[in-house]
Amino acid sequence: MSSPVPDHRATNTAMSDTHYTTRTSLRLDGELTIYRAVELCDLLKTALAVDGAIDIDLDGVTEIDSSGVQLLMSARKTAHQAARDVRLVALSPAVHEVFALLGLTVDSTSLSTPADESEPAMSGEIT
Amino acid sequence: MNFDEALQTFFVEGRELLSEMEAALLRMPDETEPTETINAIFRAAHTIKGSAGLFGLDGVVAFTHVMESVLDEVRDGAVVLDESLIELLLACGDHIAALLDCLEAGEAQPDATMEQSGIDLMARLNIFLAEDGSVAAGTPLASSPAEIATTDSRSARASFGAPGMDPDGADHWHISLRFGESVLRNGMDPLSFIRYLATLGTIEHVVTLSDSVPALDALDAEACYLGVEMAFKSAADKATIENVFEFVLDDCAVHIVPPHSHIAKYVELIEGLPEGLARLGEILVRCGSVTGRELDAALMAQTLQDTPAPIGSILTARGNVASQVVEVAVAKQRQVREVKAQESQSVRVDADKLDRLIDLVGELITSTASASLVARRSRDAALQECTSTLADLVEQVRDSALQLRMVKIGATFSRFRRVVHDVARELSKDIELKTSGEETELDKTVVEKIGDPLMHLVRNAMDHGIDARELRIARGKPEQGTVTLNAFHDSGRIVIEVSDDGGGLDRDKILAKAIERGLVEPGKNLSDTEIYSLIFEPGFSTAEHITNLSGRGVGMDVVKRNITALRGSVGVASWPGEGTTVTVRLPLTLAIINGFQVGVGKAVFVVPLDMVDECVTFPGETDHDYTDLRGQILPFIRLRELFEVPGAPALRQNIVVVKHAGQKFGLVVDALMGEAQTVIKPLSKMFSQVKGISGSSILGSGDVALILDVPVLMQQIQSSVSASRTVEGGDQGHRPRIHSDAASR
Description:
The structure holds two protein chains of two kinds.
Chain A: H1 6-9, E1 24-32, H2 37-49, E2 54-64, H3 66-81, E3 86-89, H4 93-101
Parallel strand pairs in A: 1-2, 2-3
Helix pairs in contact in A: 2-3
Chain B: H1 3-27, H2 35-54, H3 58-75, H4 83-104, H5 112-138, H6 145-160, E1 173-178, H7 190-200, E2 202-209, E3 227-233, H8 238-244, E4 253-257, H9 263-271, H10 277-287, H11 292-306, H12 311-344, H13 351-378, H14 381-404, E5 406-408, H15 410-426, E6 431-436, E7 441-443, H16 444-465, H17 469-474, E8 481-490, E9 493-500, H18 507-516, H19 528-533, H20 556-565, E10 569-575, E11 579-587, E12 592-600, E13 603-608, E14 612-617, E15 626-629, E16 632-638, H21 639-642, E17 654-660, E18 663-669, E19 671-679, E20 693-698, E21 704-708, H22 710-723
Parallel strand pairs in B: 6-8, 13-21, 16-18
Antiparallel strand pairs in B: 1-3, 1-4, 2-3, 5-7, 8-9, 9-11, 10-11, 12-13, 12-19, 14-17, 15-16, 17-18, 20-21
Helix pairs in contact in B: 1-2, 1-4, 1-15, 2-3, 3-4, 3-5, 4-5, 5-6, 6-11, 9-10, 13-14, 15-16, 16-20
């Protein structure tokens, strides 16, 4: 998993204004692992610097480890502090497996509003 | 490993655990800080229960469960492990052993008596569980809410401690993990630990804590901030679970709470962690490790208790205490792991396979000997060199093969602790067992056969040796009698001494009895040692009252017969008013020895090499049976005369000086033929009356060599020394002290 495979690891950072409002989509591809943690962290910071709601699309994630999970948690926390709406969408099987292992639930239907989430996430749930 | 083999391993390990438990129970009263010992007792019971559960041995599980519950109370300090409870637990251990025997014999159900005794024991155990609740509630200490809460949950647990009523609540491990920052950087992924853990059991519930994960701006993407609380159901033991986290133990906080732990354990866990009571409490409830009611009670108690002082300081103080506890625990775990690691380096082998190996090595030695003989005859230098290398290797193989069967005598000794404990109670005497030389090794087959004779000697020492308390006090001895077991190596033999500090043997009484029984002619002049040796004669017992234990006159002669059957010897020394020491000497092994071959005429004899001290030229004096060895008298035996070997003595005869039990004597032989490995073959029954020969061996040439029985020959020397006592005795003013080794055939 450490061998660099540029094709798979290339992250599509295209932020497209897919919807009517300022909902942006951030697509993460390839490995969400410690080898790319720093790079991904910067990427998320940049994405969150833009106003509006963000969908983090995890469909193309082939591998995720604890550092990846942590990054997503941190992104959620950052968003909450800024009263922003950040959703994880389209989990790949790899992401599903790891979330299940860690007892993390992702509820994409009930959108978290800033009001609901005034307190920090209770149990590491990523909604 | 198939099921039967696994079950067999369970029986073996179960017995080991039982004996560990027994040893721990017996040493408990002497310890000032018995916590570790109590834990050891609990662990043993717990492991037996767990493994028995794996094999579906419900009878064993039900019984050990009650026992474990009581031990848990002991661990929590709710029940005091006093003399009566130790007795009860010892009896419980015996019962489990009996259950195991029964199961191993293939009986599905224990018989009625055993079942009844099990029920009785369980009833007696349950008394402790029932008492606990009421006693604890009645104590003044229970006035604080915390105590009430604890007592509450404890009695609740006690009630489910009854067999068949297993709780469906917290029967899982609760594992709490806070990973260190550097874990990810060190190339380890917390996920992989959880994945691996899942192979050891079932992760019932897991909650990942993201509390410490900072926002992106403050995030060090390569540091780890995660924590995990999980409910884990597994039959693995604590050490196995801990081993999962072995590589991260140093920089991670790992807390493992065993199944069925007291609520206080969970509260302690929560307090040791940074997230706070309410938050973690909720998680634990979600994991199903504690119930909401239990937690509420504990929390309420905590709040009430904490109000007088600033909560913060108390929590910090507690945190510190907890971290110290953790440190100690981690150090202990490490020790356990190291012990485990050492254990895993050994392999269990069937004793039969070893015996087969030793037999084969024996055959190998015999054929190597004939090969070298043929090589010598062929005068082919290369072939001779080959066979000599071969012989060297075979010798090494022999040594290692025999070494495989060597075991320390300590295990046998520790068995006697229980015997002494039980017998002392039976006799209402206060007797302590001291052991030394536990490290001394001897062949497993010898160990197995020496158990019974030793048992008899120990019982005898306690029954006849140690006097009643009043008499001991009158004699100015400590009230507590001492029986000592000691072992050491001496010229290729193992020596085991059984001593007591009792009244010693009564010389006159023994002599009178012997005369009465017709064992000795009246008026015959006997030395003290000769008289003491009479106790080994058949049908001899001086006990005026026949007790349950000994005194039926079937004791010491059987002991002696068993020991001589092992090519050993037994002797006794006694000091009036001070005590008695019985000395057993045994060969280290029963199979193969290093022998020294000597020739007389055409016959070849073998002397065990370990007993050969030196060889000197026979000076040629023929009129008496002793010679001068560097200023000391050396009595000798002419083998030619003893065994009536035909033919004239060789021109230059030699004396082989042999040593046994600290005494030396000489054997006059025609030729010294040198060292040779000797595979001992027993003599057939027909020759059992022949004195001075202990066995035979086949030489390389196919001829038979006889192995000399040195202890018996020494006895013969003793009588000739007595006869020639008038001779000026070198530097010894008194009669040479010959140990009365009563070996005979």
